[in-house]
Amino acid sequence: MRLWILPIAALAGFTLGCNKSPEGGATGHSTTPSGSTGTFKLELPGALTAKDVKQGDKHSFDAKVDRSSGFQKDVTLKVEAPSKIEVTLDKDTVKASDADTKFHITVAVAKDAPIGKQVIKVTGTPAAGGGAPTTGEFEINVTSK
Question: pTM score, two decimals?
Answer without folding.
Answer: 0.72
